[in-house]
Amino acid sequence: MTTFASGTDTLTRDALTVLQPGFTGTTAPDWVLRRLGEGLASVGVFGRNIISAEQLSALTAQLRAERDDVLVAIDEEGGDVTRLEVRTGSSFPGNHALGAVDDPELTRQVALELGRRLAACGVNFSWAPVADVNSNSANPVIGVRSFGADQDLVARHTAAYVTGLQAAGVAACTKHFPGHGDTAVDSHLAMPRIDASTEVLHARELVPFRAAIAAGSRAVMSAHILVPALDPTRPGTLSHRVLTELLRGELGYDGLIVTDGIEMQAIAGTYGIEHGTVLALAAGADAICVGGGLSDDETVRRLRDALVEAVRSGELPEERLADAAQRVRALATWTATTEVAQPDPTRTDIGLLAARRALRVTRVDPYTPPAEPLFVASLTPETNIAVGAETPWGVAAELTRLVPGTETGSFAGGDAGHAAIVAAGERRIVAVVRDEHRHPWMAGALDTLLKARPDTIVVEMGVPQATPRGALYLATHGAARVCGVAAAEVIAGVAG
């Protein structure tokens, strides 16, 4: 595709303004700094860009030296999906744990403290919270990222999260509109479809989004899902009916509409990223998220030029692009003029306190804490793309500290149960699972373990849909680091 302009004319600047690209490295590449000077108003940071809070602060300062009102976005949900603590696991439980506690004030406090930590690092825009109602227990990508399966519970916690995050000066981006909870397909990989009626959608999927809008969510993220009751041909991200008629018109939303990653296969594999970007803007989106997978200057150039060409050919009205760019700038102004709260040293333990409250324990009395080292058998499923494989999870690290000599192993597949028994030797087994109900091999492994070792302790760190079993059964409602700490405390008999 031809490069149309040097980056100084209004059309080209607007085309850059609506992009939210990512990049590689822990410092800003020269091309990002150059694009900021040409009109780029947002960047996304991912786990690959973060080593420490200090390094992230230096990175955001580098960006702001080029453009002081730049939106620095992050996919920081807390819980299983963390970029700020990608190498250690999150200090905050995720949505499902907060929903299990069902204390909206606690959710607000957790979001506030998380927002303060982001703001202290110079991050002012988080692609969170997830407002999806996890009505399909087989959902492979939402699960513990959702507050739960009840729309009213999800609504009150979504509103509390938005309120807390934005009180820290960090713009919330409620996702994934019009609702990704009733899907059995991951939109990173293919196009999901929801065949619910409009009545069900309004009574279930849309309830939390209405609550988020009422709470003042500064942004909403679209979902790459086909919902025939709303639009039989176009997925939400590309649908004028979904974004403009429903979200803007019927729900009265006036903030920024951001797409989910445009390079996800639901869009890239069906429309291509250039055409998908143009269709999204035409449908009513204001900003194009890209960079989770494609994170280079060539991608930015391709998308910029696709928008410029679409305006010049008449496919995309110039006023639609200008309106989108203005909405991006308006959010940038809000973040630049909103007071940034610093981390509160008296609330640094709020995440662990919340994780302890979320823990549900079923035991066969009496339970005696171990006097000898344990063996932690992690029955490890394939990690979904949103979570990422680089973030550690489980209880092994904390149990090793609390019960010295404890060892661990990771097992998967049809022989996992037998292999864990052999590896454990004479040690008592702690079996750690994640969504047992979705993985037949995992349920089979537990069958094997419990038949041979009925004193096995079971820790479920996903959605606790399966029947509790084992001499001691703990449901953490998520796999954040603090959820593992809370479980390990109970297993070791240490008061939390």
Describe the structure.
This protein is an alpha/beta fold and 496 residues long. It contains 18 helices and 14 strands. The strands form 3 sheets. Strands 2-3-4-5-6-7 form a 6-stranded parallel beta sheet. A 6-stranded mixed beta sheet has the order 9-14-13-12-10-11, sandwiched between helices. Strands 1-8 form a two-stranded parallel sheet. 58% of the residues are buried. The model is unreliable at 1-7 (pLDDT under 50).
Oligomer type: single chain
Biggest β-sheet, characterized? 6 strands, parallel
Task: Give me the side-by-side strand order of the main sheet.
Answer: 2-3-4-5-6-7
Give average pLDDT, whole number. Answer: 94
Describe the structure concisely for a colleague.
40% of the residues lie in helices and 12% in strands. It is α/β, with parallel strands linked by helices.
Task: Name some characteristics of this structure.
disordered N terminus, 6-stranded mixed β-sheet, alpha/beta, 496 residues, 6-stranded parallel β-sheet, globular, 14 strands, 18 helices
SSE inventory with pairings:
Blueprint: H1 10-17, E1 19-21, H2 30-38, E2 42-45, H3 53-66, E3 71-74, H4 95-101, H5 104-120, E4 125-126, H6 151-167, E5 171-177, H7 198-203, H8 206-214, E6 219-222, H9 240-250, E7 256-258, H10 265-268, H11 273-283, E8 288-290, H12 297-313, H13 318-337, H14 350-358, E9 360-363, E10 374-379, H15 396-402, E11 407-411, H16 416-424, E12 428-433, H17 440-452, E13 457-460, E14 472-475, H18 481-492
Parallel strand pairs: 1-8, 2-3, 3-4, 4-5, 5-6, 6-7, 10-11, 10-12, 12-13, 13-14
Antiparallel strand pairs: 9-14
Helix pairs in contact: 1-12, 1-13, 4-14, 5-6, 6-8, 11-12, 14-18, 15-18, 16-17
